[in-house]
Alpha-1,4 glucan phosphorylase
Amino acid sequence: MFSGKEDFKEQYLAEVSETMAKPFGECTRREKYEVLAKMICSRAAKLHAETRLRHSTLRRKEVYYFSMEFLLGRLLTNYLINFGAEATVRAGLKDLGEDLDELSRMEPDPGLGNGGLGRLAACFLDSMAFEDIAATGMGARYRFGLFKQKIENGKQTEEPDPWLVNGYPWEIRNWDSARQIRFGGRVERTFENGKISFEHTAYQTVLAVPYDVPIVGYGGKTVNMLRLWQAEPPEEKIDLAAFSRGEYSEAVRERNEIEAITAILYPDDTTPAGKELRLKQEYFLTAAGIASIIDHYKHQYGASAWRAFPDRVAIHTNDTHPALCVPELMRLLLDQENLEWDDAWDIVTKTISFTNHTIMPEALEKWPIGLMQQLLPRVYMIIEEIDRRYRESFDRSLPGWQERLSSSAVLWDGQVRMANLSIIGSHSVNGVAAIHTDILKNDVFKAFCHRDSQKFNNKTNGVSHRRFLLESNPDLSELITSAIGSGWISDAGQLENLLPYGNDSAFLDELEKIKYGNKCRLASYIKESSGIIIDPASLFDVQVKRIHAYKRQLLNIFKIMHLYNRLKRDPDMDLHPHTFIFSGKAAQSYEFAKETVRLIHALADKVNSDPQVSEKIKVVFLENFGVSLGQLIYPAADISEQISTAGKEASGTGNMKFMFNGAVTLGTMDGANVEIHELAGDDNIFIFGLSAREVAEYGFRGDYHSQDICRRLPDLAQITDQLVNGFFGGQTDAFWSIHDALIRYNDEYFVLADFEDYLKTFFRAGEAFEDRRKWNRMSLANIAKAGYFTSDRTVLQYAEEIWNVK
């Protein structure tokens, strides 16, 4: 990219002068960032064109990865690393009196995702580019993303996240590739030459305009693309009559309604209008993406080569949000390309594959049939036919077929069940961790598995170790490279070569020194952002993830309340200082999660303001968790809290990011914790709690009684009472909804059942931390065994076993 530091400075200063029309010294830091980002983006776009030509010449099979979320994080430093230019640019900027890290902080975190689902998709894009897979991400360009979390008086509030307010230098608007999307209207059948045709009329047209973001693979040889679709009016117009009457809102009503489709990620769907908007959002993405795939295929292979489509194209749907890829691809093959049903269905089912990310009922999407009929009339007709044919093909000779059909049909009880549609229309269905896949096969989707078990497979998640270790933890990365060479950057499995250094005192001391430095950086951020002063020498016990009852932040909170109560009884209690760090967003309409956030802050105020205990324990909540904040937190953690109710977490990816950075897992046998346990071994992880089987048996037998546990454990009874007895203030400050969920409604996620074992295991972890040599060995063992959890491994498994990409 640059021949050296002087070459970079010459090119950069020339670009600044040409773009900003003023000297470098007069530019703001944001302007300097934007020019640098545009330089790198221009180089990436050129390489993307070369990549496309190379893949096209080689007739590479193309993978299209559909996801409602792509949580990219900042790109500047990441792409400089991938291009091998980070050191050169850093040195050149230093000569010019600038700092690369400060420039990088000018970049917003793109508001394109919420949590693990979106971050996984972004990691996959990174790894597909590194592995030279011809891949395109298909997503939506949300103007405001999810929301910006603010904490006011201990409560979560939501503000718009205007991440595009200053533009986004990494994107290229591709107007010529815009597509028209149809909503509403009616479908009329006509018969001609013995064939039924369908004409869609009286519909509303929305324009889908793509914004392309280059995805630079490590090594800088392959650049793929993330295509983000934005909803726009098909033409610039305004109702002048309404405007003249002073009805200004009415004059631009249609524009506003159209632009709302890609305004916000996951609009609240608790109202009919919200449901309609969210379904519009999902169809908008799938229809625009499928149309662009069909047009590109016809341009490359001609309009009659449909039989070979599954050999040349793979369409992957990341969870149920893009499930409409199935009927939409059918619609285009039937109505536009004039294929017969059986031929079109054969193509669809051989092309599309599906990843399921959850077993939680609320996350298995369903849409009212009436809404689907009204909004997507032709698509619904195709879904109805898919369901009819599925029912007709059902084997009714085997006992229990009625129950299996009722659980697997697409249309049932007035709902369109999107997971079932995805499974029926795909050739492969995968879970994202071994235990998760087993639950899908044996419980959630057992009717489908009974019918076709070969369709189901497991692909344990992975994360980009180049972002979450190489970029996020440069000091640790340098130490690793000094010991085993740089091969681990391309092949994370080589991290296992670190194992012999568990007996190297100097290496372990350096590892501890680096961890302390990372904790100091996080402590500085915490002081700056919240005013709370924490001790970097304390044990950093960290739980950062979406706030949800099954993820059991509540269990962690109860542990801290127990420590507080004990320290009040015995201020001289032998306890190494602990800092408990939380971060994560609660969904806007999820009141229990928002109350959990309020409880964390109430506890933090109680603990941090009490001089009798604050020298031993501190509680911190970091607001507005995202990729960049995560990259600061993961390298600083000592304990990684992965304490979801066993059998409820699909996989988790935070657990892997912590592991790459040497944190030790304290967790249940849930999600990918199972594989972490297998790899790290009993001596390098702290496991507690009910198993997934025991949780399921409790639910089946119905003999779990949370009140009995409180009666048996006085300390736990005290904690649950403190939720409502004035411990946190007056009655207006009580937490009755949380108390009732545990006591009155019998503790659905077994917080109280696991509390005693969790507490014992936590104290065992604390004792291990006191032995610094032992702890550092544990930390090193986790780093050495983390290589399995690279997304490189995961996407290669997808490529070979699902997409049939060599």
